Amino acid sequence: MDIRQFLACALLSAVSQAHCAESLIVHEWGTFTSVQGADGVQQHWKPLIAADLPDFVYSSATRNGGFANVVLVDQTRKDQTVGVLRMETPVIYFYSDRELDVDVRVSFPTGRITEWYPQADSIGPYSVAVDGYTRFDRRSIIEWKGVRILGPASNAISADELIRDREDAHARHYYAARATDANLLRTQSPHARSKAEYERDLFYRGIGYQSAPLKVKVSADDSSLALASEEPVPAAFVLTIRKDMMRFHELGSLTPGAERLVQLDVEPFDAAINVQGRVMKEMVATLISQGLFPKEALAMVETWKDQWFEEEGTRVLYVLPAAWTDRMLPLDIEPRPDTIVRVMIGRAEIVMPSISRQLHRDIVAFDSANAHEQQRIVASVRKLNLGRFVLPAIEMASITPDGHRFMDAASRLSSALNKPAAPKIAASVAVEAGP
What we know:
Keywords: Signal
Number of strands: 22
Number of domains: 3
Helix content: 25-40%
């Protein structure tokens, strides 16, 4: 059975389960991205690029997210904030054979919610003046109250009829999540821009300050990775992309406490366009095996295919343990759904030793270079195609083995860099969810 047939069969089963077996099913997917050096230490970092979301998405950095008489404690833009993890695009879907209202609360005890849509009823941490006194709520939460799950008949509204920006080419990471069979949602928060807002899912993003469970160390010659997880990992992939060449290793599950050695040069490089289709199909199948419906799995892969499967670099994509997700990001829904499935992917972006050595040479040279030489060095760094990970890579490379830091030179080099666009593979491979 090929991937098309497999997805078609799985889709029929999923639709049957969603609309026949149970009255309310909730599914969620999202990603957590970390940056690690050769020693496996997860870095505090911020990206070089600005937000890639539509303008209608609410943000803690924009007029307190639209909340009246409330001051959000953390109003810094996400792309200007340092954290260990970037919590990227969790979306919550609802499947019901009847209309009903639900209250939804997501807690993030070791992080901050930074963007969301539709508008929420409350978000924290915040401060508010009550009777002349300032009251602080330090919980990091987001709550939607009275979310109306519209009946299946309302699903005739297509994704193209939902709110969009006029200029939305930069915001594809948001729209791909709509391409599912989930029930349409209507919210009526008093803080919303309009009386009612409609969407296919509840969307939010944030920054985390606690490390992910997977640590990845790299050999000095870039030839091997040593993966160690504190908790069981259901599935993992290693991808390496250089210019228009790509290779990947499918690792299966990882046992907690047991180190898994991966010899990178065992798998040869192939044209990226040839490999991309295979790894996308494997990822879709893995997400389905973890409980997502086929269209949800495809929507997740489509959302991140440019960053996962086209950006140059070496990364590990892995299914985060369900227990870790529930601790990191508790989800409460009332009335309680019959089934809740949450599938989060961890992305460990690895700054290889050879890259760090090159960056260190550039930093040292930049420290004493004249203006013309500095321009040449900046051009050299851009050619490494580190994209949004260039700032943490430079920071790691600024520290010598004896602890001496070239922080000032590294800071000036970072400031001199523009915001480069990640290179694109000329063609892409479509993965279909059914006939």
